[in-house]
Amino acid sequence: MAGCIAAAFLAHVPVMAQSAPPATKSISAREPLEIKLVRSKVAITGGKEALTSAATAKPGEILQDVATYTNTSPSVLTRLEATLPVPVNTELVMGSARPANALASTDGKNFYPMPLMQRIKQAGGGESEQAVPLSEYRFLRWPVGNLPASGSRVFSARFRVVDDLPAVASGSGNKQ
Question: What secondary structure letter does DSSP report for 2?
Answer without folding.
Answer: H
